[in-house]
Amino acid sequence: MATLNASTPFQLVPNPYHIVPNPFEYNRAKIRTALHHSGEIWFCAKDVCEAVGLRWQGVGKSLRNIPAEWISIASLPNGDFQQDMYIICEPALYRLVFRSNKSLAVDFTNWVCCEIIPTIRKQGCYDQVSQQDQVKITKTIVKLVKELSHTQDAFIFDLLKRRLTSLCNCLGEPMPNLELLGQNRNQLGLGV
């Protein structure tokens, strides 16, 4: 495997990636992801670095120990526009994060192994849910949100929230704003 250096050329090719609309979240950081047409999930390298407390120093420094074939470029959402960003495949994510001894990286490693991998394994592609299953999942989401609004127990709340996240990821939908739980929609001033 070739190792990346500052002069490694990248070819811009037609985008073989589908942007996953619901980024993974870790430590209040959003990690944008893209799904390759082969079914592999790729992660925004800059987002991964920032989520685990590593300073993003560009591809030549931050990804210098990552094989070049594990790095690609995809047009990812960046605010109100799209921007070409470096993305890394799953093995690159592990190499980048698992090498770090920073406490956030260790926590991130545990999160990847306990939540990310099982979610991908269990849910598969986010956009391949049948219409019938989408309706069932949406009804389940509504039930979970109602349960969350009445739950006082922190353990049960956390359990339901993780289940809700998983179901939203399955549909490729963003998580509902949990701060709105229990609020009357007429008091929100949304003009609805």
UniProtKB/TrEMBL annotation:
InterPro entries: BRO_N_domain. Transmembrane segments: none annotated. SMART domains: Bro-N. Residues 17-124 form the Bro-N domain. Pfam families: Bro-N (PF02498). PROSITE patterns: BRO_N (PS51750). PANTHER family: BRO FAMILY PROTEIN, DNA-BINDING PROTEIN-RELATED-RELATED. This is Bro-N domain-containing protein. It comes from Spartinivicinus marinus.
